[in-house]
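STRUCTURE:
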């Protein structure tokens, strides 16, 4: 908390450059992209607070002239923001010297995320993963809904992704006795790009993370009794399940669909698609993956960012929420995700 006198003698309030304001219908939000924190406030304050993002900031003169709240209320609000580490009171020259953080979304990879699903058809995963590597894909999620994928194959896939562009691997696999006595710290040490493992249809529930994974605190393993039997087990947008974005993702979400931009998937029937739960598919010619993902038809959904979606466009979470484009009447439907429980007009989760 700053001392009141110091605040009275200064002239401007500026948000730190890592803090961005996103306007919503009833509530708006300040995203702290460095500490990965989100602070909501009633949208009537937006017209005042938005000026804190740019030089010179909110001036002392505005404290007196605001029609929205009293001078004292505004000062208290700004001091609260300062105590939360979101901004500061400062002189005009200092405020003008705070440079905005550049927002640009990296274009080094043609594809960033990928999913390969396994269920009841043999999938030529080696051909698919080779094509993903050629596209400089960075993240791969392997999901197995049945016994189709053996432990040997999982290990083979992991081996095949080592020392490649694929730096993040997530596994969602079905229980098999052989997953019981894994020494997970060594397993993660061996497969350095493996981030998480979920073993479903397990006879027991158990979460392994933190201290149990020496020097690997950001990794986790979950054994769960609940089965994951199909691609429809995805896309739920609930209170508390959103993660604060990095600067890169924040700028990506301003324009692009958060889950599907630069993503390619291979459905459990072998079809190439944007997402396995969506309706469109693009054949099985993996040797032509590059051509498929460059096509306008494939990329159309990449551009359906939350600012183009009904209701999402006025939601204060729209630049933290990756949304979902599956489970709608059509893949290019502009309705709010059917599995979202938030109402931006009332500011309530239902
Ligand atoms: S679009 Fe929806 S269902 Fe598809 S992967 Fe993303 S969140 Fe899941
Ligand atoms: S899906 Fe839309 S309405 Fe729901 S939380 Fe995300 S941005 Fe807000």
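SEQUENCE:
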């Amino acid at each position: 908390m700053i001392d009141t006198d110091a605040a009275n003698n200064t002239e401007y309030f500026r948000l730190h450059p890592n803090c961005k304001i996103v306007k919503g219908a009833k509530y708006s939000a300040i995203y702290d992209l460095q500490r990965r924190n989100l602070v909501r406030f009633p949208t009537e304050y937006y017209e005042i607070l938005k000026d804190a993002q740019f030089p010179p900031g909110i001036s002392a003169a505005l404290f007196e002239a605001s029609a929205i709240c009293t001078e004292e209320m505004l000062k208290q609000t700004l001091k609260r923001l300062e105590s939360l580490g979101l901004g500061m009171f400062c002189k005009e020259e200092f405020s003008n010297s705070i440079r905005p953080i550049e927002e640009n979304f990296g274009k080094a990879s043609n594809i960033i995320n990928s999913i390969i699903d396994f269920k009841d058809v043999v999938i030529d995963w080696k051909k698919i993963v080779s094509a993903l590597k050629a596209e400089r894909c960075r993240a791969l999620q392997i999901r197995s809904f049945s016994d189709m994928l053996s432990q040997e194959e999982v290990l083979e896939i992991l081996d095949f992704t080592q020392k490649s562009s694929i730096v993040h691997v997530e596994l969602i696999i079905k229980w098999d006795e052989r997953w019981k006595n894994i020494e997970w710290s060594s397993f993660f040490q061996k497969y350095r790009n493996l981030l998480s493992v979920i073993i479903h249809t397990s006879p027991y529930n158990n979460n392994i993370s933190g201290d149990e994974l020496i020097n690997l605190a950001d990794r986790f393993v979950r054994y769960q009794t609940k089965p994951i039997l199909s691609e429809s087990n995805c896309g739920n947008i609930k209170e508390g399940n959103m993660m604060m974005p990095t600067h890169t993702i924040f700028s990506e979400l301003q324009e692009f669909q958060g889950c599907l931009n630069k993503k390619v998937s291979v459905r459990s029937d072998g079809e190439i698609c944007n997402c396995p739960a969506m309706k469109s598919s693009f054949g099985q010619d993996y040797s032509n993956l590059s051509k498929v993902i460059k096509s306008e038809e494939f990329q159309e959904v990449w551009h359906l960012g939350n600012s183009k979606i009904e209701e999402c466009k006025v939601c204060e979470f729209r630049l933290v929420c990756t949304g979902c484009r599956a489970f709608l009447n059509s893949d290019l439907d502009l309705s709010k995700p059917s599995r979202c429980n938030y109402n931006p007009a009332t500011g309530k989760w239902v």
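REMARK: The two ends are 35 Å apart (CA to CA).
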